[in-house]
Specification:
single chain; 297 residues; mainly beta; five-stranded antiparallel sheet; 21 strands; 40% strand
Length: 297
């Protein structure tokens, strides 16, 4: 099938004009939007520096920690244009937290509960399978990864309960201080009886464990509905920005999460850890979720 030509218009704060003309597309961007594989991760680069990395090889837990917490198929690190790392993996309070990933927890397979998130329970896991494609050019760099949600509980041998295509695009916004990241996930189940996603306190969508330096006194939350770090948990929003002190202490940086209007639960339910989470340190975790029970415990 002949590949169709596409035109991308990327909005910016500045007034711009566009001119269409015939020509050959460039394979790499002079602006530094590119992709490359390095040491078991696929890196999407911005301004010729790593911005977003997808881990496709296995990551093992620290020495002395049960190997049941090993994992592939997650995004880490996410790095700001100024070089600050915003994500964290394998914190000692939650070894199953892996940067930015898809945290599915309460599901049913043939009447049995299977949890693909809490790895320590040994019910399931999510692992990288293969890449469908990678590409880069003047406007964006992207990849599509196939991930397998593996049921470790209901059969004698592990079985694939969900096939997932994760498409990630890093967009150049023609701004030196920011970039845009699109994250799209599509599922299908090979199981004869399918899989049931149960109601639970929270889960699905994407989860992000933020860097260790952001705590109660230097990390803030603001949502489209005006909620903050104290009130945003278990609310819905069209967007949510999480920001905190930069590593040099001379400013702030952060991530703006935007729910797409076509999402099933738009405006998106959110789980944001209370400010006294983890021994009153106020460490930040966000689940931009498919479901959050308002009165769950």
């Amino acid at each position: 099938m002949k590949k169709k030509n596409r035109i991308y218009f990327v909005p910016t704060d500045a007034t711009q004009s566009y001119r269409l003309q015939n020509g050959s597309p460039s394979l790499k961007s002079d602006a530094g939007i590119s992709e490359q594989k390095q040491e078991g991760s696929l890196q999407l680069n911005f301004k010729n520096k790593s911005a977003v990395s997808y881990r496709y090889e296995m990551t093992y837990p620290p020495e002395g920690v049960d190997s049941i917490f090993k994992k592939s198929g997650y995004i880490h690190p996410i790095i700001t244009p100024k070089g600050d790392t915003l994500t964290r993996i394998q914190p000692d309070d939650h070894y199953h937290h892996y940067g930015l990933w898809g945290p599915w927890t309460h599901t049913q397979v043939d009447g049995e509960r299977v949890d693909f998130w809490n790895l320590g329970d040994g019910m399931g896991t999510v692992l990288f399978k293969k890449f469908k494609n990678t590409e880069s050019g003047d406007v964006y760099a992207s990849f599509t990864a196939v991930q397998e949600h593996i049921d470790l509980k209901t059969k004698k041998e592990p079985q694939v309960a969900l096939n997932e295509d994760v498409q990630v695009k890093l967009w150049d916004l023609n701004r030196p201080d920011r970039y845009m990241l699109d994250y799209k996930s599509a599922f299908n189940s090979p199981l004869e009886n399918g899989i049931l996603f149960e109601s639970y306190r929270y889960g699905g969508g994407i989860g992000l464990r933020f860097n260790k330096r952001w705590k109660a006194d230097n990390c803030s939350v603001l949502t489209s509905e005006g909620n903050d770090r104290l009130t945003a948990d278990r609310t819905n929003a069209r967007w949510c920005i999480v920001s905190g002190e930069s590593s040099d202490g001379k400013g702030t940086n952060g991530i703006l999460f935007m729910s797409h209007p076509s999402n099933r639960k738009h405006p998106e339910p959110m789980r944001i850890w209370p400010i006294d989470a983890n021994g009153e340190e106020g460490i930040c975790f966000l689940n931009f979720a498919l479901y959050v029970m308002k009165n769950g415990k």
